[in-house]
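Students often ask why we bother encoding 3D structure as a string. The short answer is that it lets us treat folding as translation between two languages. Here is a chain of 211 residues written in the first language.
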Amino acid sequence: MCTLKLGRYLSFIFICFAITHSIALGSSYSIQPTLGCIISDHTWVQYSTYFFYPVLSGFLPIVIASLFSMLAYHNVRRIVRRQLPIIRRKLDKQITAMVLMRVIAFVCLVSPYNAYRIYATNFPTSRSVPMAYAIGRLLQASLLSINNINFVINFYIFILFSSRFRRQVKFVLVKRCWQRWKSCCCHVNNQIEPENNIAPCNSQIESEENV
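And here it is in the second language, the structure alphabet:
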């Protein structure tokens, strides 16, 4: 149902919303002498606790990804019942497995950081307790690193669960990139010139001598 033109409009709207929302949420932070950079406005604390982290950053993307994974699974079940080639069925099953594993990875990687941010927003740790503050910073950095893996794990998930994707990667890396690099670095000019070019030269020299 979604056309390319509609997709561009939706992308533009979501980008504008993300920029506006980030500016508004960032303006609610303030630097406290004992707590560091935290959300100081009570309204924004409630918003982050009950909507931003659990819904906008956590539950809503999970629901959207799960919905499309179930639609993909339903599509594969419908295709299996139809008279389609076996290769087409295998490819659709691989796509469904890739989507399902992507959703599972998304839930496992994003949920811990969102849960910690909800806790840290409502119960910030004071710098007057150095050990607890250091543990909180370490835990946040660790969970943030795990959360960022969500943006780079697609390639590895597809490598593990799609044989066709593995063959395509092998073809690109070995057949194209490696051969191109090998031809550039190990290029040797071993061309042999044909003898036909020598005969005209000899005849030209003889004609000049006769003249």
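Translate back mentally: The beta strands are 29-32, 36-39. Keep this in mind for the problem set.
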